[in-house]
Design goal:
Length: 401
Amino acid sequence: MERGSLGLLATMTIPSVGLAFGADSMAMGSGVIILLTAFLFLGFFRKSIIIREVIEVLFVILVALVIVVINSGLSYLVNDSFNTDRFFLAFIYLFYFLIAIGMWVLMSKTLTDQQVDFAVRFVFYILLLCGFVSLFGYSPIFHTGEIKQVIFFSEPSHFAINFSPCLLYMVMMSQHRVKLVLLVFILGVLQQSLTLLVCVIIISILTFRISMLIFGVLACIGMWLIIGHEYIDFTYYTDRLSFNVMETNNLSVLHFFSGWERAYFNTIDSYGLGVGYLQMGIVGDIHRGPITDRIALIADYFATNKGDTNVAVKLISEFGVIAIIGLCLYGIYFIKCGIWLRDVSRKKINMVSPKRVFFTSWFVMYFVEIFLRGTGYFSSGAFLFIASIFWMFMNNRELKY
């Protein structure tokens, strides 16, 4: 059990920890996960793997790689500035990344439901403790002093993205779901993390009855009116919920909409093909668009984090129409999985597998990274989201969403 628990904790935290050692993205930390997964697979799990499952994993990987090659090959033909060296290096890394995910899923299938349940609960309480400890400004890993750190994570939004699937799992499998959601809601307010609060809202919608949701909203409003307005600065939230992009000065909001602006231009200019795998920012005019002009008026566009966007923007920019189709398919399965989780929560479905709830939770909560606050293709969230797709494909004959 300890091996599975520590392995899950490492998978969820090491990619972010890599940023503390000067990495530009989470790819360096994910490289450590690739090596760790290969070591565990070859050293402890290789003999217990079923050949049929290996073939299924390799099939999914092959399909994904073929799509990337064909789409990027066509993009190369229409984009003169396509960076082939960057593409090939990233493609090789993607190959090993997907192989490691396949190994991870195969290893997870050898674990019992009890081992999976113990591992998720272990990681949940470790991360919950980290969240509250961070309120005191203690971070033994990140010492930038520029933003709020959460032990293993450079900022609260990264913490929220990794923590929320574990929270959803715990809420589904626990008798104390109201207490857990309330506890994490308080943590989100104290951290001033809009991402974590959005995750809590999504989980509440998937979990509670409408009457309870209305009661919860009214209770929160009442608490704020009585004591909250004296201690909580709500300008943090109102600034980020401002959709008047031509007047706001909030760079987080502007970069969010600027990403969609660039996705639109990249797709149109490439005839729907996209600019190619990991070519966003290399191919296409990044100065183009009224929102980008707005950023230039209030800040140095290159000095700010222009890559601070969501995964959907990157996918649409780089894969065009194919990405749009994929996102629509994700939306369909997101709804189906969400309905299934609601049925589990309301006890319409009994005796559910912890393993199935775990992977479904990751699949559903990756919604936040896709559409709201992404951390790139090679984050721990992406690793476990793709793992959930592998697992669902391998168990498609047994699943009914």
